[in-house]
Amino acid sequence: MRYRRRSSVKVMSIPQQVTKVHATGNDFVVYLDQTGQWEPTGEEIRLLCDRHFGIGGDGLIRLTKPAFVSDLSDSQRQEAHDGGAEWFMDYRNADGSLAEMCGNGTRAITLFAQHEGVADVNKPFRLGTRAGVKTLTPHGSMAPYGDNVFQVDMGKWIIGEDNAYEVTIPGTKGSARGTFVDMGNPHVVAVVEDAFSTLPTVEDLDLVVKPVVNPTIETDQNVEFVRIDDIDEQTGIGEATMRVNERGCGETLSCGTGLCATGVVLRSKTGIEHWDITVRGGTLRVDVSQQDVKLTGSATLVGAIELL
């Protein structure tokens, strides 16, 4: 596949070939940078991620060595080294901003790393991120989650006061109560279609519009809207449906850290630790314990793109 850049933009810090990957519909432009020469600019990211004038993506991921990521501190580089992470996920949102973490992005870039021969297809892969080192374990095909399934240990979580935030959507009547969760990046999770919500059903929400959270959180946050669909007391597995508005790119078909934050809130509300959560891009498993969260889902290589 070939893609011609707009003549008004001279791209100098992106390699000539990039790859399109998605993980349950959360899509990314990715590339391998083994020597540290291809650190992208905000303008380049916005162009490539533009769905009309570029390739299109929720974000851009550069797979590189921790030493080549300019915003990392010495302690972050040391943490990656101590955690056995030779490779780092340098993730940027579609608007060009830096992102601490992207759960779906970890699966997408690990599949790409396998394709490029820098990750073993049969062994766990240690990946550096701005939210610490993550371990991804390949599981191949796994129903009902799909092909090229990985489980990623997303690490520790922090939950705030239950229902402490009012969540509204400009132009939509009603509100819901949200709970803050820190997954290395900030989330507010609102359960809809319950006693605290007067918003429409989760399918009818207008998430093109950015939700408003009150009281205001110091940093911008991702906002998840979730409905509990079923709980099987015998198996200890719950089912839920979720949609998300991600900071830096708007509504996405899936959000890995958002799924984990949702699982944390649902565990707090119900005591159930294992959830199959359906988003617009597919179904994923979220397993929550007191210590950490594990996310299981698929990834797909779409194609190689030559920049002209």
From TrEMBL:
InterPro entries: DAP_epimerase_AS, DAP_epimerase_DapF. The record marks 187, 246 as: Could be important to modulate the pK values of the two catalytic cysteine residues. Substrate binds at residues 26, 93, 103-104, 185, 222, 246-247, 256-257. It holds the Pfam family DAP_epimerase. The active site is at residues 102, 255. Keywords: Amino-acid biosynthesis, Cytoplasm, Isomerase, Lysine biosynthesis. Its EC number is 5.1.1.7. Its main location: cytoplasm. NCBIfam families: DapF (TIGR00652). This is Diaminopimelate epimerase.
